[in-house]
């Protein structure tokens, strides 16, 4: 397993730091990213480590010393991204010289944070978890965050993902051992699903993000419903309508 990449939250507000770190961990779980989140009270007393991918800066902590730290960070680690946790509209102007990648409105929400992080894909993509699977006489590597669900096809499996459908020479049982739980769950003997790709659970059926309807095994219905509600509740995500 690859080493987790580091995200730092620069804030003197302990509650904001803990809340943001918790949302980052939820996002990392959904994205299948190996992440280490640390809260740092600015200004820093030492340089950010080389493995640092993102710095999330609380606008209330901005000062000449913090701005100088951010400028040194940019110079030493150009690939490291900067997100500003913006409490005011003026905060973006105050930190403009550091060229933040994106702004996260306060109060910080899961949706606001993830939307900002999507704009910084190049900064954290090296922490993604991948599947390395046999495909006929070769192998393919697939990032887990692109995978919606997996269907059994005899001794093989069909992967439904952002890039389309792909059949690999790997059983569903073997796939289940390789996928993190959560966000992937077995809903019946022939399907594994990513909770984030579920649009709706209704009448014992899952409606997926690509409109595929998957029947849930009766024994799995209640546990799946509870896990889906918990998954969405933690993130403040509303159920989509169909």
Overview of the molecule:
- The protein has 242 residues and is α/β, with parallel strands linked by helices.
- It has two domains: 122 residues, Response regulator (Rossmann fold, 3-Layer(aba) Sandwich); 106 residues, LytTr DNA-binding domain (OB fold (Dihydrolipoamide Acetyltransferase, E2P), Beta Barrel), CATH 2.40.50.1020.
- 31% of the residues lie in helices and 33% in strands.
- The strands form four sheets. Strands 2-1-3-4-5 form a five-stranded parallel beta sheet, covered by helices on one side. Strands 10-9-8-12-11 form a five-stranded antiparallel beta sheet.
- The chain is elongated, with a radius of gyration of 20 Å.
- The model has no long low-confidence stretch (mean pLDDT 91).
């Amino acid at each position: 397993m690859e080493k987790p990449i580091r995200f730092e939250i620069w804030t003197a507000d302990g509650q904001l730091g803990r809340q943001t770190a918790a949302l980052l961990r939820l996002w990392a779980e959904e994205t299948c990213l190996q992440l280490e989140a640390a809260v740092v009270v600015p200004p820093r007393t030492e340089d950010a480590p080389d493995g640092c991918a993102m710095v999330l800066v609380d606008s209330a902590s901005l000062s000449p010393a913090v701005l100088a730290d951010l400028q040194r960070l940019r110079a030493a680690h150009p690939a490291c991204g900067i997100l500003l946790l913006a409490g005011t509209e003026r905060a973006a102007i105050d930190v403009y010289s550091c060229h933040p990648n994106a702004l996260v409105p306060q109060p910080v929400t899961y949706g606001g944070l993830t939307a900002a992080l999507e704009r910084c894909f190049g900064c954290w993509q090296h922490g993604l978890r991948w599947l390395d699977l046999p495909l006929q006489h070769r192998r393919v590597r697939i990032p887990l965050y692109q995978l919606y669900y997996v269907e059994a096809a005899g001794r093989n499996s069909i992967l439904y993902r952002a890039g389309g459908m792909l059949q690999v020479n790997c059983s569903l049982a073997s796939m289940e051992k390789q996928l993190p739980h959560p966000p992937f769950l077995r809903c019946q003997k022939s399907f594994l699903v990513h909770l984030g790709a579920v649009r709706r659970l209704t009448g014992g059926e899952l409606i997926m993000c690509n409109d595929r309807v998957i029947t849930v095994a009766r024994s799995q219905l209640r546990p799946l419903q509870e896990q889906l509600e918990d998954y969405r509740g933690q993130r403040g995500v509303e159920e989509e309508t169909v």
